[in-house]
Amino acid sequence: MAISATEKPLGKVFTSDYQLTIPSFQRAYTWQAENIEQLVNDLQDACADPDTPYFLGSLILVKDGPTQYQVIDGQQRLISLSIIVSVLRELEDDPDLIDSLNDLILEPGDKLRGIKAEPRLTLRERDTGFFRMYVQEGDLEGLFDLRDNDIASHAQRNIAVNTRRTFDLLAAMDAKDRRRFASYLVNGVTLVIVTTDDLAGAHRIFDVMNMRGVPLTASDVFKAKTIAEISPAARNAYATRWDDIMDPLGDDSHTLEEFFSDLHLIVSHKAVCTQLLEEFRKDVLKPYVKKQNVISFIDDLLAPYANAWLILNRPTDANLPDDIVAMLVSLADYQTTDWKPVAMWALVNSIRNLGSANAQVFSTPGNIGNGTTNAHDERLQLHDIDRLHDVLAALERVTGVDSLNRQSPLARRTRAASAIRDLNKGHTLQQIRGFLITDEDRRSALAHLRGELQTSPAMKKLLLIRANEQKAGYRITRPRSLKALPIMPEQVSAKSDFAAWPESVHDHWANRIGNLVLSQANETQVAPLATYAQRRDRMLLSASSRRFPLTAELANIAECTPQTLQYRQDEMVRLIADHWNIRYDADDTDLSTLNEETLNVKATASSPTSKRVSIAQVLEAGLLIAGETLVWERPRKGERWVATVTSEGKLRMDDGREYATPTAAARAVGGSSAGLTVWKRTSNGQKLSDVWKAYRLRKH
After folding, report:
1. What pLDDT, in 10s, does the model give residues 497-554?
2. Residue 518 is inside which H or E element, if any?
3. Helix, strand or coil for residue 16?
4. In the chain, helix, strand, coil percent, each to 5?
């Protein structure tokens, strides 16, 4: 068994030297939106230092021919990297850069070398056509026009969702930063390519590479550096003190890196920390070493902030007032953690003895933190509780608005660093730039609330929790299995009372907040239920579900109509706007009463998003004309389909049937593989996908 290993930048991997195939026995593409978002965010941070490579792990390949390889390990990263390149290509307008990006995922072919023109990466048979059409060949507009029932597998759904998320992240960057990101992706991202000619050997390599020793954590490194600066007489005592402080945080290296990264931001006010071990020593430890006062670092900085970190992870156990606990629980609802440094600062600067070895931080005994009780225990000494409350309220507000507006981690951490800098100066909340919400922020957030919620299930649940608690006037205890479930089924069958609704109405409400309900019901049990009454009764079955007023009120609604969903939508938008105090702008306009289009127009600096473009929007922009015809020519099958654009924003076929989306019309006449891109304008032959792209990327 011959084995070779070499480190290469991505630009040398996505070339003619490697024709990569995912074997049929491999698992499907399973990365979720948060996985690819983390990768994009990490790369954004890394490209701030273009001279430092970003190592993305190893690929294990089995050689099948001169340039043919089976991928044994690395499929998830290769697919995700292809998605990122495809989105960069879609957003680029420089023809040379478009060609360069295109060459990374599509082999143009070389007759002299006997190389076929084909994608550089071939997925498993079930998903390869989908991936090739929409991602590798660049039909992103067709992908964005798909609805859930247009997608055949979980892997394809993950591809669609992750492409949308990547588009939203990269479209928010300006062109200069995006080109710098693309350059770093090609030249700065490296992988170790491990190749063998034996499949069994490849699996053995995979097993060995995943049975590694336990590396030193950031805590181990900083402990060694710190304890070495303490006098021999106190060294053992403070080594033990360090362990007492840090052991409750656990030994997960990623968690410890997060803690020290947050501590670095709090002290340095720097949003980006790409080399934690080096930058933490320079920006945080070095001043204490210079003053020969590393004991103060342990007692006055490390200890209180470690306890603050523990409180944020166990808020309901903390010995804190109920209203503070409720606010910490609300912050913990977010999947992002960029709010943590500000919350840690607020706790440390509001509790005098948080760093004391005897501080009774938690109310329940246990082996985490200061859970055990003894005669020397100290009650937590809180001061200026109103200030703590106000800071946490402002923090939850900006975290919510930034989450709705899909702000990048860099933007969120920059906000956190700015807030801590101003808090250290003793500024009032109104003077703290990190807590500022502009009118544009308000309009953009409310436009997202009004429109299709292209966000994670966790964020949908959070929004419903905020609306319900605002209506109830108090924090509602959440059952563990709480979910955001749709009132209208995703697949409307003929026997459903929703079948009488026009398709355009189904399409409009499918992904809007007015169609969602908080419930403890099992989503797999609710999904097959066709009628409103069946779904309502199942979602109301648990008493825990009925704690939420917007769920409980379904009991009084005998029939669900589009007007029912509109009423719920209006109410929830208003409740959330009131909760975050974003309802009124500087001119005292009630933004919660404005429709999505008006809000989007007024949010002047909005960047393009992956939100599905409707025929009505393109008509309103003047990029299509009511009454013009579109054609789909299929000469090999002897078919020619013609669709007319109606003034109501639909496509009407010759037989009178109307469809709300181009994809729906194409699939109705041509089968499940058809999409938006098949249609052309009869007037000039322009592809409909190009019209949709022109609308999406137009300058606002």
Report:
1. 999 998 878 888 988 999 999 999 988 889 999 999 999 999 999 999 999 999 999 9
2. strand 516-519
3. coil
4. 55, 10, 35
- Report yes or no: 692 and 616 within 8 Å, Cβ to Cβ: no
CB 101 within 8 A of CB 81: no
Q: Which residue has the tokens 């292209």?
A: 454
Q: What are phi and psi of 505, to 5 degrees?
A: -75, -40
pLDDT one-digit tens code per residue, 200-246: 655 565 555 554 444 567 888 898 889 888 888 888 899 889 989 99
> Whose CA is closest to 451, among 390, 500, 512, 495?
512
Q: CA-to-CA distance for 634 and 670, rounded, in angstroms?
A: 9
Three-class DSSP category at 203: helix
Q: Which of 611, 466, 557, 676 is nearest to 566 (CA)?
A: 557
Q: Are 683 and 642 in contact (CB under 8 A)?
A: no
State how far the alpha carbon of 192 is from the alpha carbons of 55, 73, 636, in Å.
8, 11, 46
Enumerate the H helices of 314-408 as residue ranges. 322-332, 340-348, 385-404
- Hey, how many other C-beta atoms are within 10 angstroms of the C-beta on 380? 21
Residues 6+ apart with CB under 8 A from 132: 119
- Give pLDDT tens digits for 264-320: 999 999 998 888 888 999 999 999 988 888 999 999 999 999 999 999 999 999 999
Residue type, 248: P
For residues 82 and 177, give the distance between their C-alpha atoms in angstroms, rounded to a whole number: 19
Q: How confident is the model at residue 604 (pLDDT cuts 50, 70, 90)?
A: very low
State the residue for tokens 């929409």: 134
Residue 570 and residue 55: Cα distance in Å, rounded? 47
- Please, is 217 exposed, middle or buried when counting C-beta atoms within 10 Å of its C-beta (0-12, 13-18, 19+)? buried
Q: Which residues contact 484 (CB under 8 A, 6 or more apart)?
A: 457, 460, 461, 464, 516, 517, 518
In the DSSP assignment, the letter for residue 546 is G
pTM value?
0.73
Which tokens sit at 526? 């609710």
Helix (H, G, I), strand (E, B) or coil at 552: helix
- Predicted confidence (pLDDT) per residue in 421-473, tens digit: 999 999 999 999 999 999 999 999 999 999 888 778 889 999 999 999 999 99
Is residue 367 pLDDT above 50, yes or no? no
Helix or strand run (H / E) with residue 190 = strand 189-196
Distance, in Å, from the CA atom of 188 to the CA atom of 84, rounded to the nearest integer, reads: 15
Work out the average pLDDT over 251-276. 91
Cα 85 from chain centre: 18
Q: What is the pLDDT of residue 643?
A: 94
Tokens of 662: 């181009």
